[in-house]
Write a structure and sequence with these properties.
The complex is a heterodimer of chains A (229) and B (151).
Chain A lengths: L3 E4 L3 H23 L3 H25 L6 H4 L3 H8 L10 H22 L17 H34 L6 H6 L1 E5 L9 H19 L18
Chain B lengths: L1 H19 L3 H27 L4 H15 L25 H4 L1 H24 L2 H22 L4
Helix pairs in contact in B: 2-3, 2-6, 3-5, 5-6
Classes of the chains: A mainly alpha (229), B mainly alpha (151).
Chain lengths: 229, 151
């Protein structure tokens, strides 16, 4: 097939990708420092909740190469790819494994984070819904999986560098511009305005749920009468 | 003379056993209670920083943390009390007894910021209290990260 310039990644997918990359870096940094940065850690966590929700909906209603069904890594596809027989556009089967791995891992990270506590002065917005013991367990998972996140991010970046140097293929540029210069498939289609609004609305609703803003307020000592000593 | 020496030796022995006789279960309980009191104090400072700032409440809380930080809590970490149950199962990690230098640094950092917290609280400057509260929290984390099991 003759190669041509194709539209690969739609704008929402690209924005999602780069905002998520920044958010993950910021959440790691704020979580490592602690202290007053935990407030930001919590806010960034809610942003990531929104981003992940958006991406999951976009994986159903977005444009061609953003759809999960388009790049779902079946064993057959992975075998073909490893034999060098896979041809297609968008995420290759191994890359797709990394995509699902990262999305899955980050989903577990933000979910455990919502219920976590740091035994100092910070609690996840939904931690009051659980017993302290369960919150502690989820905190343990939240900390442990940080290491898995480092590994996956390192693999992700290493694969991009491998493609750049060994295979002479620039994967970063399409993720910035949306265009692939030597594409062999069709340009992405779908993922219009309505789909975008739906995905954004679902994301906002889930962030609201995750923020715990709907929880009944706790009594504050100043607002209730307490003994005078 | 001999009698005096014997008495002194006896006194030393009694004193020695008295400090060694704390029940491990009690030591763990005292530890957990002290951390609980500091948890309350941290929460109260946070409430004041985020809501209406009450200088007196912040001073009280900062003083509690300072007092506990300077109370010599290390003596409650009896050998073998990385296991056992006080109010709940202890989350003290065995590294407390093996990585003394690292622990010492973390504890000293906490001590310093706890003393500073009390000083800053006395000024009643809400912004400075918030900043120092963050610094203090970072030193709590300094210990939790390496010496406190997550569950």
């Amino acid at each position: 097939m003759q190669s041509k310039r194709i539209r690969l990644w739609d704008l929402p997918t690209r924005l999602f990708h780069w905002i998520l990359a920044l958010a993950v870096a910021a959440s790691v940094a704020s979580g490592q420092v602690g202290g007053n940065w935990m407030e930001w850690h919590g806010r960034i966590g809610l942003l990531v909740v929104g981003l992940l929700t958006f991406r999951i909906v976009w994986g159903l209603v977005g444009s061609t190469y953003a759809r999960f069904a388009q790049f779902f890594p079946t064993p057959g596809k992975i075998k073909a790819y490893l034999r060098g027989e896979w041809c297609g556009e968008g995420h290759n089967p191994l890359g797709a494994l990394a995509v699902f791995g990262l999305l899955g891992l980050l989903t577990v990270q933000v979910t455990t984070g919502l219920f976590a506590n740091d035994d100092i002065a910070f609690t996840g917005p939904l931690s009051d819904l659980l017993t302290k013991g369960l919150s502690n367990q989820l905190t343990g998972i939240h900390h442990l999986l940080t290491n898995a996140l480092y590994v996956l991010v390192a693999l992700h970046v290493a694969a991009i560098m491998f493609y750049a140097h060994a295979k002479k293929q620039n994967l970063v540029r399409p993720m910035v511009t949306g265009w692939k210069e030597d594409g062999e498939g069709e340009s992405a289609r779908g993922g219009g305005f309505v789909a975008l609004v739906v995905a954004l609305l679902v994301a906002v609703a889930v962030v609201y749920g995750a923020s715990g803003a709907w929880l009944p307020p706790l009594p504050t000592p100043a607002a209730v009468e307490t003994p005078d000593f | 003379m001999k009698k005096q020496l014997a008495l002194a030796a006896l006194a030393l022995a009694v004193a020695g056993t008295a400090s060694a006789q704390m029940k491990p279960e009690d030591a763990i309980k005292y530890r957990q209670s002290a951390y609980g009191a500091m948890g309350w104090s941290m929460a109260r400072i946070k409430m004041n920083v985020e809501g209406t700032f009450n200088k007196e409440d912040v001073i009280k809380s900062a003083n509690v943390i300072q007092a506990i930080a300077n109370s010599g809590m290390g003596s409650l970490y009896l050998p073998g009390t990385d296991k056992g149950t006080g109010w709940e199962a202890t989350r003290a990690k065995p590294e407390i007894w093996t990585e003394k230098e690292k622990l010492g640094k973390a504890a000293t950092a906490f001590n310093k910021e706890a003393n500073e917290m009390a000083k800053v609280a006395a000024t009643g400057d809400a912004a400075a209290v918030k900043a120092q509260f963050g610094k203090l929290g970072e030193t709590c984390k300094g210990c939790h990260d390496d010496f406190k099991a997550k569950n």
